[in-house]
């Protein structure tokens, strides 16, 4: 049996290890399109704070883990699944056959459809590559504006505040963490965050991002 898993985040990785336990003789290929060993996005805030190096985000720490488990790690972006031929196709044009296919490709940040999202110094904070770019710029005193104060936004906010940046957070909802917190709880979080020196604007939908000329 040849198992192919697209996506080497926590879901894909645990699926691969579970399959190995259940089927000692199966062939297992685990595909990811980031140039990193399988890692946890959940560890990114600790990387941003500087508590861990990027290797600390790796889901499995021993260098020979995947060889020992006989899980074949493949770096590449799958662009097509040919279910009829039972093959996946990579951006390079190469194909890989499978008996069983698991798609565990995770999700992506939801980008507001506003002008200026592609300007320099505008980042998402989703991948370790994003986090490296942010860490390189978020020096003490740097002015940072964060769009979004949801659950993940608040975790990132805490990490940025710990880096000593001058932080402003804008949230289109009427409170912080609007999808998880009541008005009372959201406003308590807001007061606490403001007491730490973070400026918070709620009911504030961003309509455009512009770049100020630096003289
Ligand atoms: C900063 C941050 C903090 C977070 N903190 C928490 C937390 O505290 N608690 C919590 O529960 N969740 C947290 N999350 C969310 C959590 O990280 C995700 O829910 C989790 O990563 C989902 O795992 P996954 O394996 O499904 O997908 P992912 O981790 O996204 O992995 C999927 C992988 O598949 C790859 N891929 C996608 N498409 C293709 C393709 N076509 N070809 C090849 N590879 C492909 C992706 O590049 C990625 O590497 C956080 C997320 C972030 C960004």
TrEMBL record:
It comes from the Bacteria. Transmembrane segments: none annotated. Its cofactor is FAD. GO terms for molecular function: oxidoreductase activity. InterPro entries: FAD-bd_OxRdtase, FAD/NAD-bd_sf, FAD/NAD-binding_dom. It holds the Pfam family Pyr_redox_2. Residues 1-213 form the FAD/NAD(P)-binding domain. This is Putative oxidoreductase. Keywords: FAD, Flavoprotein. Gene3D superfamilies: FAD/NAD(P)-binding domain. The keyword Flavoprotein applies. The keyword Thylakoid does not apply. Belongs to the FAD-dependent oxidoreductase family.
């Amino acid at each position: 049996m040849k198992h192919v898993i697209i996506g080497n985040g926590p879901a894909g990785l645990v699926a691969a290890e579970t399959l190995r336990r259940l089927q000692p003789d199966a062939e297992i290929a685990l595909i990811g399109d980031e140039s990193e060993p399988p890692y946890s996005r959940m560890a990114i805030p600790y990387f941003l704070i500087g508590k861990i190096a990027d290797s600390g985000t790796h889901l499995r720490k021993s260098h020979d883990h995947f060889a020992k488990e006989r899980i074949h790690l493949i770096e590449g972006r799958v662009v097509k699944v040919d279910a009829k031929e039972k093959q996946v196709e990579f951006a390079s044009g190469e194909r890989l056959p499978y008996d069983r296919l698991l798609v565990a490709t995770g999700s992506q940040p939801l980008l507001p459809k506003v002008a200026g999202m592609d300007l320099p110094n505008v980042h998402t904070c989703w991948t370790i590559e994003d986090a490296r770019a942010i860490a390189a710029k978020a020096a003490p005193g740097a002015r940072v504006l964060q769009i979004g104060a949801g659950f993940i936004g608040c975790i990132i906010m805490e990490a940025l505040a710990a880096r000593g940046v001058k932080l402003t957070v804008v949230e289109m909802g009427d409170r912080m963490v609007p999808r998880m917190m009541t008005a009372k709880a959201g406003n308590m979080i807001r007061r606490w965050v403001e007491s730490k020196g973070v400026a918070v604007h709620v009911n504030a939908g961003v309509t455009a991002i512009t770049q100020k000329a630096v003289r």
